[in-house]
Specification:
The protein is mostly helical. The protein contains seven helices and no strands. It has a single domain, classed as Ferritin, CATH 1.20.1260.10.
Length: 243
């Protein structure tokens, strides 16, 4: 249902050159960051099969980063300077997350594989949607075509290897990884909403509350007579008897 609601908005994003270029460059950063983390996982694992697969996966991520970066730069350079500033649309084009949600550590192959499987599956679904929206841009669509083939392979090998190293607990690992992704997604959404609400409150404060205080102070000032107030000076001789 949510994807159906977001589809018209995503269509507008991917058919706006400035927003498209910005999203492709952001995807490049995410893929490069994920590739570095997976290369680190290859160094820490004691499983030779996983080491080989992780190294291939890391190389794929770096290649994806280069594909996204090159295409994003091509689109960006073709734009006029004033059109290169775009609105933030990260929530409309989530793409693939990095490995911030899981710790890459020695002996943590199973949770990493579960996280990678869900991440690659989510990315493949998102990228397939973006590819369908790029009917008028065959060059960018070709980039997603190439990357989607790798995403499908990554999604399959991570699930197969998770079942190999933990045949009994693999399903539990996947459910736990899903819960962590949902929780982290909730935290990201809550942070975004908090930023939005604080911006609205500050806007109301500066443009509604402060002008109201200024208007009230001005009205109070107008009720007082202008200039200095006259002070009645009493006769000093008459005041002597009062002390």
């Amino acid at each position: 249902m949510s994807s159906f609601i977001l589809r018209p908005l995503q269509f507008l994003v991917w058919n706006n050159l400035a927003l498209k270029a910005r999203n492709l460059l952001r995807f490049a950063e995410t893929e490069a960051d994920g590739g570095r983390d997976i290369a680190r996982a290859a160094e820490l694992t004691s499983d030779p099969v996983l080491r080989r697969l992780f190294l291939r996966h890391a190389k794929d991520e770096q290649r994806h980063a280069e594909l996204f970066r090159r295409r994003g730069a091509e689109i960006m350079l073709a734009l006029p300077p004033d059109a290169r500033r775009a609105t933030n649309t990260d929530w409309l084009t989530p793409g693939e997350r990095g490995l911030d949600d899981v710790k890459v550590r020695r002996g943590g192959d199973a949770p990493l594989l579960a996280f990678l499987h869900l991440s690659e599956k989510s990315a493949a679904g998102d990228f397939a949607v973006y590819r369908q929206l790029l009917t008028q841009d065959p060059d960018t669509r070709a980039v997603f075509d190439e990357i989607l083939r790798d995403e499908t392979y990554h999604m399959n090998y991570t699930l197969a290897q998770l079942k190999r190293i933990e045949p009994v607990k693999s399903r539990r690992r996947l459910w736990w990884a899903r819960l962590k992704r949902l929780w982290n997604g909730y935290l990201r959404l809550a942070g975004a909403l908090a930023g939005l609400i604080s911006g609205v409150v500050l806007t109301l404060f500066y443009f509604v509350i402060l002008p109201l205080f200024a208007w009230t102070a001005k009205r109070a000032e107008q009720k007082e007579p202008p200039g200095w107030r006259a002070v009645e000076i009493r006769d000093p001789a008459a005041m002597k008897g009062q002390y």
